[in-house]
Amino acid sequence: MGIITNGFTSLQQIRLERTGLRDHFDLLIISEEVGVAKPDARIFEYALAQAGHPDRSRVLMVGDTAESDIRGGVNAGLATCWLNAHQRETACRSSPRLDGDLFKRPGAAPV
């Protein structure tokens, strides 16, 4: 499992370490280090290469921002799931293809 994050390396590493999330992921891809940011498909291509080129049908992009995370996953040809914790309407100029929304399935409880 991996993380793709936009931002500055020093700040993102601190955030992930403070939350304790860093230890749960094998791969950390930070846009500053790659030179492109989500939603550009190239950062997803880079992450997939670093992960050993897994079969895309076995990859799910889960993100909390429709404009960068979900649109980026779609741009890279991945299945996507929007972690829409605040149940916001998409701010995308044109709606991305959402393969799932964790908070809009029947019986879903807020996390």
Automatic annotation (TrEMBL):
UniProt entry tagged with the keyword Lipid metabolism: no
Family matches, as InterPro entries: HAD-like_sf, HAD-SF_hydro_IA, HAD_sf, Pyrimidine_5'-ntase_YjjG
Protein name: Pyrimidine 5'-nucleotidase YjjG
Source organism (scientific name): Raoultella planticola
A Pfam family: Hydrolase
EC number: 3.1.3.5
Keywords of the record: Hydrolase, Metal-binding
Domain of life from the UniProt record: Bacteria
